[in-house]
Amino acid sequence: MAEQNNGAAGAEQQAQFTIQKIYVKDVSFEVPGAPQAFSETGQPQLDLNLNQKVARVSDDLFEVVLGVTLTCKVGEKTIYLAEVAQAGLFQLAGFDDRTLDMMLGTYCPNVLFPYARQQIGELVSAGGFPPFYLQPINFEALYAEGLRRRAAQAQQAGAPAEGGQA
């Protein structure tokens, strides 16, 4: 029995997650109608768009890029547009495919999100606008929704649903 427990503990120790680097891959801030944009009246509408890209750099090294785009409009006029591509290099070794997919789709974006949130907030403030506080994002729910969509698409195509990066 002790040998089985040691073997199980050894298998658990093989799975490793390491953050190699966190960096800003791309950043952009635009105020297309400045300086008139600062005197616009009306209720601003904010549109937030998230995206994520995963690229395998080597056998167990992945680049995950969390893209955040915030657009502020008054009526049809774009007041400002802030875009951040926050990236990280993550080493993931010893994970089965399903767990690897889940780690890349949930855990890595959760690590990157505070950095992206800070960048967006600083861009908006530096652009001369009132502070913007990006609310927390439930990446687990987004990942689960992505799995449901992939399963539905696979079912429509007549193929079995498989995991893959969200």
In short:
With 166 residues, this protein is of the alpha+beta class. It has three helices and four strands; from the N terminus they run αββββαα.
Note down, in words, how this protein is organized:
This protein is an alpha+beta fold and 166 residues long. It has one domain: Bacterial Protein-export protein SecB. The protein is 37% helix and 36% strand. It contains 3 helices and 4 strands. The protein has a 4-stranded antiparallel β-sheet with strand order 1-4-3-2. Strand 2 and strand 3 form a beta hairpin. It is elongated. The N terminus is likely disordered.
What is the H-and-E element order?
Answer: HEEEEHH
Query: Overall mean pLDDT score?
Result: 89
Total count of strands = 4
How many domains comprise the coordinates? 1
Spatial shape: elongated
What proportion of the residues is helical, as a percent range?
25-40%
What is the fold named in CATH at topology level?
Bacterial Protein-export protein SecB
Query: Helix count?
Result: 3
- CATH C-level class: Alpha Beta
CATH architecture level-2 label: Roll
Structural class: alpha+beta
Q: Return Rg in Å.
A: 20 Å
Largest sheet: 4 strands, antiparallel
Distance between termini? Answer: 40 Å
List the uncertain runs. 1-11
Going across the major beta sheet, what is the strand order?
A: 1-4-3-2
CATH superfamily: SecB-like
Strand content: 35-45%
